Amino acid sequence: MHHLVRCTGLRAAGSLNASRRSAEFSTASIARSQKESILDIEKLLSRPTWSVSSLLPPKDSASDAPEVTSKQLHHLLRLSALPPPKDQQEEAKMLSTLSSQLHFVKEIQKVDTAGIEPLRSLRDETMQGEKEAELGMEAMKDALAQEEVRGKHHKRIRRRRDHTAAKQEEDWDVLGTAQRKVGRYFVVEGGKDK
Fold first, then answer.
1. Burial annotation 4-39 (CB, 10 A radius, 16+ → b, else e)
2. CA distance 171 to 166
3. DSSP label of 176
4. Residue in 66, 131, 145, 127 with CA at minimum distance from that of residue 98
5. How many helices (H) and strands (E) would you count in the chain?
6. How many C-beta atoms surround the C-beta of residue 142 within 10 A?
7. Would you write out the chain's pLDDT as a tens digit for each of its 194 residues?
8. DSSP state, 18?
Protein backbone atom coordinates (compact mmCIF):
# COMPACT_ATOMS: atom_id res chain seq x y z
CA MET A 1 0.00 0.00 0.00
CA HIS A 2 2.83 2.38 0.90
CA HIS A 3 4.59 1.61 -2.37
CA LEU A 4 1.43 2.22 -4.38
CA VAL A 5 0.89 5.63 -2.78
CA ARG A 6 4.48 6.52 -3.43
CA CYS A 7 4.19 5.63 -7.12
CA THR A 8 0.96 7.58 -7.37
CA GLY A 9 2.73 10.50 -5.72
CA LEU A 10 5.54 10.24 -8.31
CA ARG A 11 3.01 10.09 -11.09
CA ALA A 12 1.21 13.14 -9.67
CA ALA A 13 4.53 15.01 -9.37
CA GLY A 14 5.38 14.02 -12.94
CA SER A 15 2.04 15.19 -14.23
CA LEU A 16 2.43 18.41 -12.20
CA ASN A 17 5.81 19.05 -13.82
CA ALA A 18 4.33 18.30 -17.24
CA SER A 19 1.47 20.75 -16.63
CA ARG A 20 4.00 23.38 -15.46
CA ARG A 21 6.03 22.90 -18.62
CA SER A 22 2.80 23.12 -20.66
CA ALA A 23 1.78 26.33 -18.87
CA GLU A 24 5.28 27.81 -19.33
CA PHE A 25 5.20 26.87 -23.03
CA SER A 26 1.72 28.35 -23.54
CA THR A 27 2.67 31.54 -21.63
CA ALA A 28 5.82 31.88 -23.73
CA SER A 29 3.89 31.31 -26.95
CA ILE A 30 1.26 33.89 -25.93
CA ALA A 31 3.98 36.42 -25.08
CA ARG A 32 5.70 35.70 -28.40
CA SER A 33 2.43 36.07 -30.37
CA GLN A 34 1.65 39.35 -28.53
CA LYS A 35 5.14 40.64 -29.34
CA GLU A 36 4.69 39.62 -32.99
CA SER A 37 1.28 41.32 -33.14
CA ILE A 38 2.79 44.51 -31.66
CA LEU A 39 5.50 44.36 -34.30
CA ASP A 40 2.87 43.79 -36.98
CA ILE A 41 0.88 46.81 -35.75
CA GLU A 42 4.01 48.98 -35.72
CA LYS A 43 4.86 47.76 -39.23
CA LEU A 44 1.31 48.41 -40.39
CA LEU A 45 1.22 51.92 -38.94
CA SER A 46 4.68 52.84 -40.25
CA ARG A 47 3.38 53.59 -43.76
CA PRO A 48 -0.05 54.72 -44.97
CA THR A 49 -2.27 52.14 -46.63
CA TRP A 50 -4.54 54.64 -48.37
CA SER A 51 -4.98 58.34 -49.01
CA VAL A 52 -7.96 60.67 -49.16
CA SER A 53 -6.90 61.51 -52.70
CA SER A 54 -7.65 57.89 -53.65
CA LEU A 55 -11.32 58.64 -52.86
CA LEU A 56 -11.39 61.65 -55.18
CA PRO A 57 -11.90 61.29 -58.93
CA PRO A 58 -8.80 61.34 -61.12
CA LYS A 59 -8.21 64.76 -62.66
CA ASP A 60 -7.60 63.46 -66.19
CA SER A 61 -10.54 61.05 -66.58
CA ALA A 62 -14.31 61.35 -66.25
CA SER A 63 -15.86 60.59 -62.89
CA ASP A 64 -18.43 57.84 -62.37
CA ALA A 65 -20.44 60.21 -60.16
CA PRO A 66 -23.78 61.35 -61.60
CA GLU A 67 -23.54 64.46 -63.77
CA VAL A 68 -24.94 67.58 -62.10
CA THR A 69 -26.57 70.01 -64.49
CA SER A 70 -26.47 73.78 -64.26
CA LYS A 71 -30.21 73.80 -63.55
CA GLN A 72 -29.74 71.36 -60.61
CA LEU A 73 -26.89 73.47 -59.25
CA HIS A 74 -29.02 76.63 -59.31
CA HIS A 75 -31.88 74.72 -57.64
CA LEU A 76 -29.55 73.46 -54.85
CA LEU A 77 -28.14 76.96 -54.35
CA ARG A 78 -31.64 78.40 -54.05
CA LEU A 79 -32.69 75.71 -51.55
CA SER A 80 -29.54 76.41 -49.52
CA ALA A 81 -30.15 80.18 -49.63
CA LEU A 82 -26.75 80.65 -51.26
CA PRO A 83 -26.07 83.22 -53.97
CA PRO A 84 -25.91 82.02 -57.58
CA PRO A 85 -22.54 81.99 -59.34
CA LYS A 86 -21.38 85.35 -60.74
CA ASP A 87 -20.15 83.99 -64.06
CA GLN A 88 -19.66 80.81 -66.09
CA GLN A 89 -16.18 80.22 -64.67
CA GLU A 90 -17.47 80.21 -61.06
CA GLU A 91 -20.37 77.96 -62.09
CA ALA A 92 -17.97 75.49 -63.75
CA LYS A 93 -15.84 75.43 -60.60
CA MET A 94 -18.93 74.81 -58.42
CA LEU A 95 -20.07 71.97 -60.70
CA SER A 96 -16.59 70.41 -60.60
CA THR A 97 -16.46 70.64 -56.79
CA LEU A 98 -19.94 69.17 -56.43
CA SER A 99 -19.04 66.34 -58.79
CA SER A 100 -15.89 65.58 -56.74
CA GLN A 101 -17.92 65.56 -53.54
CA LEU A 102 -20.47 63.15 -55.02
CA HIS A 103 -17.66 60.88 -56.21
CA PHE A 104 -16.15 60.98 -52.70
CA VAL A 105 -19.49 59.97 -51.14
CA LYS A 106 -19.88 57.11 -53.65
CA GLU A 107 -16.40 55.81 -52.77
CA ILE A 108 -17.17 55.98 -49.04
CA GLN A 109 -20.44 54.10 -49.61
CA LYS A 110 -18.48 51.24 -51.26
CA VAL A 111 -16.72 50.42 -47.96
CA ASP A 112 -17.98 47.16 -46.45
CA THR A 113 -19.21 47.97 -42.94
CA ALA A 114 -20.80 44.60 -42.16
CA GLY A 115 -20.21 43.68 -38.54
CA ILE A 116 -18.97 47.15 -37.56
CA GLU A 117 -20.92 48.88 -34.82
CA PRO A 118 -22.11 52.34 -35.91
CA LEU A 119 -20.48 55.38 -34.34
CA ARG A 120 -22.82 56.86 -31.75
CA SER A 121 -20.95 60.12 -31.26
CA LEU A 122 -17.52 61.68 -31.58
CA ARG A 123 -16.12 60.78 -28.20
CA ASP A 124 -14.10 58.04 -26.56
CA GLU A 125 -16.37 54.98 -26.78
CA THR A 126 -14.03 52.58 -25.00
CA MET A 127 -15.10 51.14 -21.66
CA GLN A 128 -12.65 53.43 -19.86
CA GLY A 129 -13.88 56.50 -21.76
CA GLU A 130 -17.51 55.72 -20.99
CA LYS A 131 -16.67 55.17 -17.32
CA GLU A 132 -14.92 58.58 -17.16
CA ALA A 133 -17.91 60.30 -18.79
CA GLU A 134 -20.43 58.62 -16.50
CA LEU A 135 -22.05 60.85 -13.88
CA GLY A 136 -22.20 59.30 -10.45
CA MET A 137 -23.61 60.36 -7.11
CA GLU A 138 -20.34 62.07 -6.18
CA ALA A 139 -20.54 64.38 -9.19
CA MET A 140 -24.20 65.16 -8.49
CA LYS A 141 -23.78 65.75 -4.74
CA ASP A 142 -23.74 69.57 -4.97
CA ALA A 143 -26.80 69.71 -7.25
CA LEU A 144 -28.75 67.28 -5.05
CA ALA A 145 -27.89 69.33 -1.96
CA GLN A 146 -29.72 72.30 -3.52
CA GLU A 147 -33.02 70.36 -3.70
CA GLU A 148 -35.77 70.05 -1.13
CA VAL A 149 -38.99 68.03 -1.05
CA ARG A 150 -42.24 69.97 -0.58
CA GLY A 151 -45.75 68.73 0.01
CA LYS A 152 -47.41 65.96 2.02
CA HIS A 153 -49.43 64.02 -0.54
CA HIS A 154 -47.94 65.07 -3.84
CA LYS A 155 -44.28 65.44 -3.09
CA ARG A 156 -42.37 67.64 -5.46
CA ILE A 157 -38.67 68.24 -5.56
CA ARG A 158 -37.83 71.92 -5.72
CA ARG A 159 -34.52 73.65 -6.05
CA ARG A 160 -33.66 76.01 -3.20
CA ARG A 161 -33.37 79.59 -4.39
CA ASP A 162 -30.32 81.61 -3.53
CA HIS A 163 -31.85 84.89 -2.32
CA THR A 164 -28.57 86.83 -2.57
CA ALA A 165 -28.26 85.96 -6.29
CA ALA A 166 -31.92 86.92 -6.83
CA LYS A 167 -31.32 90.27 -5.10
CA GLN A 168 -28.29 90.94 -7.33
CA GLU A 169 -30.41 90.17 -10.41
CA GLU A 170 -33.08 92.64 -9.26
CA ASP A 171 -30.49 95.36 -8.61
CA TRP A 172 -28.94 94.99 -12.05
CA ASP A 173 -29.36 98.09 -14.21
CA VAL A 174 -30.41 96.71 -17.59
CA LEU A 175 -30.34 100.13 -19.27
CA GLY A 176 -26.99 101.08 -17.74
CA THR A 177 -24.94 100.26 -20.86
CA ALA A 178 -27.55 101.23 -23.47
CA GLN A 179 -26.43 104.02 -25.81
CA ARG A 180 -29.96 105.18 -26.69
CA LYS A 181 -32.98 104.99 -24.37
CA VAL A 182 -36.64 105.90 -24.62
CA GLY A 183 -38.23 105.79 -21.17
CA ARG A 184 -37.77 102.26 -19.76
CA TYR A 185 -36.69 100.86 -23.14
CA PHE A 186 -33.42 100.80 -25.06
CA VAL A 187 -33.34 101.50 -28.80
CA VAL A 188 -31.82 99.06 -31.29
CA GLU A 189 -30.77 100.43 -34.68
CA GLY A 190 -32.22 98.51 -37.63
CA GLY A 191 -30.25 97.82 -40.81
CA LYS A 192 -32.96 99.06 -43.22
CA ASP A 193 -33.09 102.66 -41.89
CA LYS A 194 -29.52 103.46 -42.93
1. eeeeeeeeeeeeeeeeeeeeeeeeeeeeeeeeeeee
2. 9
3. G
4. 66
5. 6, 4
6. 8
7. 333 333 334 344 444 444 444 445 455 555 555 565 666 777 777 887 777 777 777 776 665 666 889 999 999 999 999 999 999 999 999 998 898 888 888 888 888 889 888 887 788 878 888 888 888 888 888 888 888 877 777 777 777 777 676 777 777 788 888 888 888 888 887 766 55
8. H
